[in-house]
Amino acid sequence: MSDKYDVVVIGAGPGGYVAAIRAAQLGLKTACVEKYVGKDGKQALGGTCLNVGCIPSKALLDSSWKFHEAQDGFQIHGISTKGLSIDIPAMLERKDKIVKQFTGGVTALFKANGVTNIEGHGKLLAGKKVEVTDSEGKTTIIEAENVILASGSRPIDIPPAPLTEDVIVDSTGALEFQSVPKKLGVIGAGVIGLELGSVWRRLGAEVVVFEALDKFLGLADEQISKEALKTFTKQGMQIRLGARVTGTDIKRKQVTVSFTDADGEQQLSFDKLIVAVGRRPYTENLLASDSGVDMDERGVIFVDDYCATSVPGVYAVGDAVRGAMLAHKASEEGVMVAERIAGHKTAMNYDLVPSVIYTHPEIAWVGKNEQQLKTEGVDVNVGVFPFAANGRAVAANDAGGMVKVIADAKTDRVLGVHVIGPGAAELVQQGAIGMEFGTSAEDLGMMVFSHPTVSEALHEAALAVNGHAIHVANRKKR
Ligand code: FAD
Ligand code: AMP
Question: Where is each FAD/NAD(P)-binding domain found (predicted)?
Fold first, then answer.
């Protein structure tokens, strides 16, 4: 078999592996180069998301939620759970099994679709050649008509909190604590910090989250982020806003964190500290100096709206390019690029990439929030429906939060759906489907929603936009 491919993908995360599968489905001779080595010492496909991101974090979020519910949420149903305990190594083993199931699944999908899996580090050379260096340092050159760069991202580290073997860790280390830390510090109140902080809080850790910004969840709708801050604080997570970490000092496995906030210089001590201050593209040693592909000073590869780089036939997708660092964004870019290589005119709707924070309650949104629309001078109508008035949520004893639908005041077209509460991610997806087809709030209000479901909260919020909600007093009467 010759070493010339129609498509060579570098990186087998959700951007790269999906691009490779789609390209192969379209009849293109495709190879994917991946260097990640899993816990068993063998190459593992699936990237950050499957190995140390979305999937293992959700496995731990689900285990810890079950424990928390058994401890604090069962009594109200008349269920007693005396003598409740949790076996942390067993919880971690379950997580690892799930990871293996899914990374192995990608290997099987590559085989089924005829994608050639190449182990090693890929580097783009001039003329769309890819140099692959295997674990023994042996290099091979493969040629491609098209190259897709999908090398993903890495956690950012900050000088005041250098990582250590087992006290100061990044998100990957935070998936591996062998016991529940008594006191846990988290730097960064972003999605990853909140999710991982929640896992260990539910299992009993005292959690303090340091956030340099004064504003909590700045990208979310303000009404939703205010509710979230209230709820997390009630859950016992201490979220310190305007608190910038300036240094750390480890003595006898205890880390003392120095930080400054409105009250000046302060210190707090912890058993473990998670650094979750964001991620940056992983593009080191990815491009030869004459590859022709450009990136900015942070390593973000420049691409156009269709993920094409400045070199014809070379594309880049996922966390390595501009836009939200989300698995579903990476995957859809992968599909778009594969289809465009095959001659289709596929484009992606970047305005409707949903965001989700998998805490409890979940927080999710799609489209624009109220403050963004106000800044843009768009006149809007807003409908809000609290889960406290939703039968299914109350029956489940999970009735915190709300659904908020924002529509253009002139056209009634839905511009944003924002949810904090049970099933937020799934509800927002329903909003996203409607929005993709240009739904109005009235359209959503006219649809039949099953009773009793938490989805009815979306229905009622859409009705509330025009003052027609049935199960809550309308702010605006029509
Ligand atoms: P990656 O998944 O990072 O994959 C890139 C791959 O390329 C890696 O396997 C890497 O080894 C390989 N690679 C890099 N350079 C080379 C090279 N030169 N040669 C060969 N191989 C190379 N997103 C969500 O949407 N939902 C979530 O719930 C979610 N949870 C997360 C939780 C955590 C703790 C973390 C850390 C992230 C989470 N994310 C989540 C983000 C998500 O993981 C990323 O957005 C997604 O993985 C990006 O996909 P990608 O394909 O661009 O890159
Ligand atoms: P995200 O980029 O969404 O993962 O969030 C990371 C968060 O970490 C951001 O909100 C940053 O403001 C915050 N952050 C970065 N550096 C520090 C620091 N030294 N101390 C406290 N918070 C920080």
Answer: 5-334
